[in-house]
Design a protein that fits this description.
By secondary structure, the protein is α/β, with parallel strands linked by helices. The chain has 19 helices and 16 strands. The chain folds into 3 domains: about 120 residues, ATPase, nucleotide binding domain (Nucleotidyltransferase, domain 5, 2-Layer Sandwich), CATH 3.30.420; about 160 residues, Nucleotidyltransferase, domain 5; about 140 residues, Orthogonal Bundle (Hypothetical protein af1432), CATH 1.10.3210.
Length: about 525
C-alpha cells in the first residue's frame, strides 16, 4: 500500500502496516542518456545485496535532436527494456522503480518512449530532475563508503548531464546538475568521431565554462575528499591504473598522460588503450575532457571512485518508501513549514480528502500512490498564501512547479501543481489537456475530491460535518446530505451548486441528494 495511506489511520481500514521484510526483492532501472542499467537486489537488515545486474549501451541521448528523440533511439531503448523485463518476473511491480534522466528530461516527445516502456516493464517511468538525480547518486555512493564525518564531493558524469554533490555521511548538503555529458559533448565537439587537438580543446573549454558556474560553492575549500561515480569516471580510473599512470584513483598527472595519449588517435575507432572497454570507446574522449575541466576549476587533486551510482540510490530510496521513510513526506512537511501554511486548515482538508478517497477509490480504480499524491496536495494546498491571498492557488502551483522537491519525479511534481492550481474556482480543460488520457481521468477524480474537501473546510472549523453518504461511479459522485443541512448552511449550498456547474463542464456529474 502507499506510504501515507498506510501511515494515516484516519484514511485506512488497516492501521498496522507490515514492514518490508528481509529477503524482499527490489529492482531499479536507470534509463540513462548513454547506458541503461538494471539492478535486482535483496534486502538484508536494512542493506541491499545485489542479485542481478545488467547494463546495455543504448545511447538514447545520441538520438536527441532539437529536443526530440528519434524513432531509432526510441526503438533501441524499448528493445533493451524488453530484455530487462525478462528478469523482472520475480519482483513485485510495486517494488520496481524505473527512472529516466537527462535525455528524457530534454525530450519533448518523451511520452513516445515512456508510455510503451511502462507497458513493457509493468511500472511507470519516473523522469527525474537533475538535482533529484544528484540526490539519488549520492545515496547510492554513500552506502559504499565508510560512515565517517568528513565532507565529500561526489561527481557523476553521465551521457547528457553531470551531477555534483557535497555531503556528509548519508546527508547531501548541496546538489547541482550541469548540462554536459559524454554523449552530448561527444556528438557536439567530435563530429563523426574525429579526434583532434582543436576538438578536444573545444570540449574542454565548454566544460570549463559550465563548471565555472558552480566554482564558488563546490571548490576544494568545501570538501575533504572527491569521489567519482558513473561508468565514465570508473572507466578513467581503470585506464590510468592499468597503464601505470596512477597507483590508485584519478590524479591530475594521470589525466594529463591520458589526454596526451588520446590526442594521438585520429578517430574514436582507433583508440587502443589497456583497460578501455569497447562500449566506452565512443565516449571516453569527451568524458576525459569533462573530467579534466572539473579537476582544474574545482581544484581536485585526487579522486577515488565508487561502485555505487544512481541505480543503487534508487534501490535505497525505494527501501525507504516501503519502510515508512519516504523522503517525499519530509519534503512536503518542510514546504508547509517554510511557507507557514495554516496547519489546522491543512489537517481538515487532508482528513476530508482521506474520507472521500476511501469511499471512491474502488469505483474509480485509484491506487495507493494516487492517494499519497492527493494527501500531499491537501497538506500544501495553501502555501501560495505566503505570496498573496489573491490567486493563492496559482501561487501554490507555481511554487510546486519550480521548487526543488527531493524525492519527487517531474510527473509527480507537475501533478501536485495541477491539483493545487485546480483546487477552487474555474477549472479549465487546458489544465489537464497535456496529460495522457488515462492520467487525465485519474487527475479529474483527484481534483473532484480535493475541490469538495476545500469547499467543506470552512464548515468544519465551526462544527463537525455530518455523515455524508458517498456513492461514486464512472465520472459521477453522489453526496447523500442529511435533510435540512444545506438549508441551514446556505453559503456551502451555493458553493456546492457552483461545483456542480464547474465539474459538469468537464463531463463530471456531482449529485447532491
Amino acid at each position: 500500500m502507499g506510504l501515507l495511506l498506510r501511515q494515516r489511520a484516519l484514511t485506512l481500514a488497516n492501521p498496522n502496516p507490515d514492514q518490508l521484510p528481509d529477503g524482499s526483492l527490489l529492482a531499479a532501472i536507470d534509463i540513462g542518456s548513454n547506458s541503461f542499467h538494471l539492478i535486482i537486489a535483496k534486502t538484508e537488515h536494512g542493506e541491499m545485496r545485489t542479485q542481478e545486474v545488467l547494463a546495455e549501451k543504448v545511447q538514447l541521448g545520441a538520438g536527441l535532436e532539437n529536443h526530440h528523440l528519434s524513432q531509432e533511439a526510441i526503438d533501441r531503448g524499448l528493445a533493451c527494456l524488453a530484455r530487462f523485463a525478462q528478469l523482472l518476473s520475480s519482483v513485485e511491480p510495486l517494488r520496481i522503480r524505473a527512472v529516466g534522466t537527462n535525455a528524457l528530461r530534454q525530450a519533448h516527445n518523451r511520452l513516445d518512449f515512456t508510455l510503451p516502456a511502462a507497458e513493457i516493464l509493468g511500472t511507470k517511468i519516473d523522469v527525474i530532475y537533475g538535482r533529484e538525480e544528484a540526490r539519488l547518486v549520492y545515496l547510492g555512493v554513500a552506502h559504499t563508503l565508510a560512515d565517517d564525518a568528513q565532507s565529500r564531493l561526489v561527481v557523476d558524469i553521465g551521457g547528457g548531464s553531470t551531477e555534483f554533490i557535497i555531503g556528509e555521511r548519508f546527508e547531501p548538503k548541496r546538489l547541482e546538475s550541469l548540462q554536459m555529458g559524454c554523449v552530448s559533448f561527444g556528438r557536439d565537439c567530435f563530429a563523426d568521431g574525429v579526434i583532434s587537438k582543436e576538438n578536444y580543446r573545444r570540449a574542454y573549454d565548454r566544460a570549463r565554462v559550465e563548471v565555472a558556474h558552480i566554482h564558488y560553492r563546490y571548490n576544494a575549500k568545501h570538501w575533504e575528499e572527491a569521489v567519482g561515480s558513473s561508468g565514465t569516471l570508473n572507466a578513467i580510473n581503470t585506464i590510468v591504473t592499468q597503464n601505470g599512470w596512477s597507483e590508485g584513483g584519478i590524479t591530475r598527472k594521470a589525466l594529463e598522460k591520458l589526454e596526451k595519449k588520446l590526442i594521438t588517435f585520429n578517430h574514436f575507432d582507433d583508440i587502443d588503450l589497456d583497460g578501455l572497454s569497447e562500449n566506452r570507446r565512443n565516449v571516453i574522449v569527451a568524458g576525459v575532457a569533462i573530467t579534466s575541466a572539473l579537476f582544474d576549476i574545482l581544484g581536485v587533486e585526487h579522486m577515488r571512485t565508487s561502485p555505487g551510482a544512481l541505480r543503487e540510490g534508487v534501490i535505497y530510496d525505494l527501501m525507504g518508501r516501503l519502510s515508512h521513510e519516504d523522503v517525499r513526506e519530509r519534503t512536503v512537511n518542510a514546504l508547509v513549514q517554510r511557507y507557514s501554511a495554516d496547519q489546522e486548515t491543512a489537517d481538515i482538508v487532508e482528513r476530508r480528502c482521506g474520507m472521500l478517497f476511501s469511499a471512491c477509490r474502488g469505483a474509480w480504480k485509484l491506487s495507493d500512490e494516487d492517494g499519497d499524491l492527493l494527501l500531499w496536495g491537501a497538506r500544501c494546498h495553501e502555501i501560495g498564501m505566503a505570496i498573496s491571498h489573491k490567486h493563492a492557488n496559482r501561487h501554490t502551483a507555481y511554487l510546486l512547479r519550480n521548487a526543488d522537491l527531493p524525492g519527487f519525479s517531474q510527473e509527480e511534481q507537475e501533478s501536485l501543481a495541477i491539483l493545487t492550481q485546480g483546487q477552487r474556482g474555474k477549472l479549465p480543460a487546458s489544465l489537464l489537456e497535456d496529460l495522457p488520457k488515462q492520467q487525465r481521468r485519474k487527475m479529474l477524480y483527484l481534483l473532484a475530491i480535493l475541490r469538495l474537501a476545500v469547499c467543506l473546510k470552512h464548515v468544519e472549523f465551526l462544527e463537525a460535518l455530518p455523515a455524508f453518504g458517498i456513492v461514486a461511479d464512472k465520472l459521477t459522485l453522489s453526496l447523500g446530505i442529511p435533510e435540512g443541512w444545506l438549508e441551514s448552511h446556505p453559503l456551502t449550498a451555493v458553493e456546492l451548486e457552483q461545483e456542480q456547474s464547474t465539474m459538469a463542464k468537464l463531463d463530471f456529474t456531482l449529485t447532491l441528494n
